[in-house]
Amino acid sequence: MSNDSLSAMNTSTNRTAPAREIALLTALCAAVLIAQIDTSVTNLAVQPIGHYFRVPVATLQWVVDAYNLVYAALLLSGGLLADLFGRRRVFVAGAAVFAVASILCALAPDIDALLAGRVLAGLGAACLMPASLALIRVLWPDAERRARVLGIWAACNGLAFAIGPVTGGLLVDAFGWRSVFVLALPFALLAAALALGTIPESAHREGRHFDVGGQVFGALSLGALALAGIELQRAPILSAMALAIAAIAGTLFVRVESRHGNAAMVPLPLFRQPVFQGAMAATAAMTFGMYGAVFLLPLYWQTAGTLGPAGAGFALMPMALVFALGSPFSGHLTRRLGLGSVIGGGLGMIGVGLLVVAGSVVDGTLAASQAGLVLAGLGMGLATGPLMGAAVGAVEPRHSGSAAALVNVARMAGATLGIALLGTLYALFHPNVRGLTLAMSLGGSLQIAVALWAWRRLP
Question: By 3-state DSSP, what share of the chain in percent is helix, strand and coil, each rounded to 5?
Fold first, then answer.
């Protein structure tokens, strides 16, 4: 799309009727719900799937990990495709692929067909998420309005964490494991239908192309990084090899992309912008601590006999609800207090919350753990929307797809490293509570350090 037509589209969007704007935002939020609910409900179906197909635990783990691995590996490709061939087109294609994947999983006659469906779902999510965030950058060019929209978009992450485990558990009990895969189908169809009816098309080729070398090394690096996190506990040697491959492939990726300048799949000059740098670093730090906590706490509660699987899921709900309820206010606070204050304050809340959780482990009080998690959830609600907005708002609209993919890569990388490193620290002292205390203390301290850095670096 040319600059003139993009300007005309933006003007039209600024004057969009409330009903049309609601339809636009509903379509984009449905994409978040698709990607986030899928993982949480699938976790609850793993055990009955294993019983039905009579397969070992090692195979069952790939019901979840096949999705995560493909999603991580193809994020950059999804962002580039959105910029080159049309953000609405890629968004709708991602929703359609996810719908087909959901049907394939629900009707899978054997475990191989189910795993193929999970791979296809990862491909759909890799197209959906970058396109969704990129469309917000293009459709709401005004920074203040975009901040409000991003707050609502971010709230869907918390909503998914809140309703996913409970809904998944109820579906499995009432209708069996196949029903959890049907859950994403109406969201995918709604997203595609609304997008086709309300979202104008936009694309920015401008000399960029589908760089094969960049695609291969980028996918290999991200996929190997995800594999390192997935296999850390089960196969540490394989995990170490995957981490080395990720580092080598990442280095080669940077070399290939540096030759193409602004026409690269990932234009490296983006990283010279202080706001973009800050958003990427803060996003990775945020998910490092939070995903580590969400991974380790239910594991600790169940191992210690404090809570069962269902109880652990319900214990995480207050954090998720506060995340969802706090996110819509992040845009207003950013306008009032500034980007650095809101992001720094949000990360600081997460850090203090994780330190409270670390202290509660020593005391053995579940109420204190809940207080810490609620504080951390509020911090995530305040920081997530502004971080996404800072990343895509710091770049020109023509790079919005790549920026959206990169900030999601930062989320994935932080989460992977958080689960891997904090999980290793926990395992070194398992079953002693000291391991969890050290892991939560490290995660919280990192949040506070990055909070101070973000407060000083971001405007």
Answer: 85, 0, 15
Q: Which of 60-64, 102-106, 184-188 has the lowest mean pLDDT?
A: 60-64
Neighbours of 196 (CB within 10 A): 14
Cα–Cα distance, 152 to 327 (Å, whole number): 6
Three-state SS string over 390-407 comes to: HHHHCCCHHHHHHHHHHH
Mean pLDDT of 155-167: 76
| Residues contacting residue 429 through CB under 8 Å, at least 6 positions apart | 435, 438
The string of DSSP codes covering 182-218 is: HTHHHHHHHHHHHHHHHPPP----TT----HHHHHHH
pLDDT at 10 over 90: no
pTM above 0.85, yes or no: no
Number of Cα atoms under 13 Å in the Cβ half of residue 417: 19
Closest Cα to residue 83, out of 402, 409, 389?
402
Please provide residue 86's backbone torsions phi and psi, each rounded to the nearest 5 degrees: 115, 125
Question: Nearest Cα to 380, choosing from 191, 198, 156?
Answer: 156
Q: Is 338 helix (H, G, I), strand (E, B) or coil?
A: coil
Q: How far apart are CA 111 and CA 66, in angstroms?
A: 12
Give the pLDDT of residue 209.
Answer: 66
Structural domains present in the chain? 16-200 (1.20.1250.20), 212-266 (no CATH), 273-459 (1.20.1250.20)
Q: Of 123, 321, 88, 73, give the one whose Cα is nearest residue 194.
A: 88
Residue with tokens 């990775």: 284
Chain centroid, CA 179 distance in Å: 24
The answer to whether 85 and 404 have CB atoms below 8 angstroms apart is no
